[in-house]
Amino acid sequence: MTIRVAVVDDQALVRGGFAMVLNHQDDIEVVAEAGTGREAIDAADLHRPDVILMDVRMPEMDGLEATAHILAKADWPVRVVILTTFDPDEYVFKALRAGASGFVLKDIPPEELVAAVRTVADGGALLAPTITRRLIDKFSDRLSLDNQIAERLERLTKREREVLVAVAQGLNNLEIAERLFVGEATVKTHVSSILSKLGLRDRAQAVVFAYESGLIQPGTQDVGY
User: Fold this and answer.
1) Which residues have a Cβ under 8 Å from the Cβ of 181 and sit 6 or more positions away?
2) Could you identify which of 65, 100, 126, 154 might form a hypothetical disulfide with 80, taking C-beta atoms 3.0 to 4.6 angstroms apart as the criterion?
3) Domains and CATH numbers, the chain
């Protein structure tokens, strides 16, 4: 199956470079390019891509607003990945809260870009622990604990909470399985149950939920290296 991708960035050179890299893959096709948030919405409606690579700061409409609009209206399983130079800003964090499946750096090596698109298309999330930690640390003091969000934790079993903590630390399913001494298939089942019970789109939103619910306190978990 071919992964259909839309590349959204106001810099033509960035768009063209990403498109060239992706179009060289047998299983990936760039079906649209856009230079503004409004163009991104139109392109998504017209081409219905599987994955959208979305810049944050663009004229007319920024990537955050475009992401929220696309994900709210989409009646197909589209995934949005935020593009950033990693001048970390609150817009990136808000994009994750809105349902984006992660973010990649614009200077990402070609092979990692390809892997990122495949990961997201397969239902995964792009959550490099070091980047996630930097975002959380930078903006955690601006986020107030929402009691309603915290109460949703009661829907989870003790084991599911342990899995959610591990997910928030950036561990993959195999690493979680090794930590908890269970099978990888069991971890996948727990992750699916967590997302279903909490009404979350993917692991990216699960990470945000773990911090906003107070399950994890910024600065208390050792993530990244």
Assistant:
1) none
2) 100
3) 3-126 (3.40.50.2300), 139-212 (1.10.10.10)
Answer for the pair 1, 26: CB distance below 8 angstroms, yes or no: no
Burial of 110 (0-12, 13-18, 19+ CB in 10 A): middle
CB atoms within 10 A of CB 11: 13
CA–CA separation, 137 and 116 (whole Å): 24
Q: Helix, strand or coil for residue 84?
A: strand
Q: How confident is the model at residue 222 (pLDDT cuts 50, 70, 90)?
A: very low
Coil vs helix vs strand at 162: helix
Contact 191, 163 (CB under 8 A): yes
Cα distances (Å, whole numbers) of residue 33 to 4, 14, 147, 209: 12, 11, 41, 32
What are residue 79's phi and psi, to 5 degrees? -120, 140
Cite the beta strand spans of 85-180 per DSSP E.
Answer: 103-105
pTM of the model: 0.73
What is the spatial order of strands in the sheet that 28-34 belongs to? 28-34, 3-8, 51-55, 79-84, 103-105
Residue whose structure tokens are 């970390």: 88
Highest mean pLDDT among 92-101, 133-142, 153-162, 202-211: 153-162
Going by C-alpha positions, the residue among 131, 94, 96 that lies closest to residue 112 is 131
